[in-house]
Design brief:
It is a single chain. The chain has eight helices and eight strands. It is α/β, with parallel strands linked by helices. The protein has a single domain (13-261), classed as Alpha/Beta hydrolase fold, catalytic domain (Rossmann fold). The protein has an eight-stranded mixed β-sheet with strand order 1-2-4-3-5-6-7-8, sandwiched between helices.
Length: 264
């Protein structure tokens, strides 16, 4: 008999927009949607979800690509990227468009808010899903969007490097919300080729002080020895030491969730 992954999470099947996906749920408190990076819902992402749950939130982790529980590996990464490139749910190369899967995620956030209560919902996206939290801001319930290494669209051409993975109507709504007090947090390594600096420059241009950027030095010779290939701020490239900038970045992110979703 096959053991299901992550037995310490409740496993639910959620159907929205005609698509059924597994969702792993854990914790109590306001809802936070944790969206995994490539290649899928592998163990380090589940560990991050546990950490968020222990901080006083109800974590919802949908499986959007790959096989939940499967370990990280180069072949697995390649197969997942290939799947994302041909799937209609992900807008991998197009500019000024949003990925259709964000509609599914918005419905999940709506139900999660209804189930958990609180002032609103948070969302943490990583890598391919990094920009999805931004697109989810069209709803007033999205109060704490975190964009960790947002990689879509792939920055091959100059216009792609500046693109935010949302259409013009969605961007106008996001600007409207930030003008009214909403905030967006973004995390990246400075020399991560998958997250070009132009993307964070554009977020600053569009959102001003409402964009809270955390950029970790990964230049050659940086004082912490962070490699230039570092990409996964909250999982694989995080160092569990209070003196390390990745640890500090995660603490800032957790404080952001608490400030927006559990205000004193």
């Amino acid at each position: 008999m096959e053991t299901r992954p992550y037995p310490d999470f409740e496993l639910e099947e959620r159907t929205y927009s005609g698509e059924t996906r597994p969702v792993f749920r854990r914790g109590e408190g306001p809802a936070v949607i944790v969206m995994h990076e490539v290649p899928g819902l592998y163990p380090a992402v589940a560990d991050f979800g546990r950490l968020v749950a222990e901080a006083g939130f109800t974590v919802y982790m949908p499986s959007l690509l790959g096989a939940p529980g499967r370990p990280f590996g180069p072949g697995y990464v390649l197969s997942s990227i290939t799947r994302a490139c041909i799937a209609r749910e992900f807008t991998v190369f197009a500019t000024r468009e949003r990925s259709p899967i964000t509609d599914w995620l918005r419905e999940l956030a709506r139900d999660a808010h209804g189930e958990c209560g609180g002032p609103g919902v948070g969302a943490v996206g990583m890598c391919l899903t990094g920009g999805f939290a931004l697109a989810m801001m069209v709803d007033d319930r999205m109060l704490a969007p975190v964009l960790s290494q947002p990689s879509l669209p792939f920055g091959i051409l100059p216009r792609q490097r500046r693109d935010l993975g949302v259409d013009d109507e969605t961007l106008a709504r996001i600007r409207e919300r930030t003008a009214a007090g909403a905030c967006v947090m973004g995390l990246r390594f400075t020399h991560d080729r998958m997250v070009p600096p132009e993307r964070f420059h554009r977020l600053r241009e569009e959102l001003g002080d409402a964009f809270l950027a955390v950029e970790i030095d990964s230049a050659p010779g940086n004082p912490h020895g962070i490699p230039g290939r570092a990409h996964s701020v909250l999982t694989r490239d995080l160092v569990e030491s209070p003196e390390h900038p990745t640890y500090a970045a995660r603490e800032r992110m957790m404080a952001f969730l608490k400030e927006r979703l559990r205000p004193v």
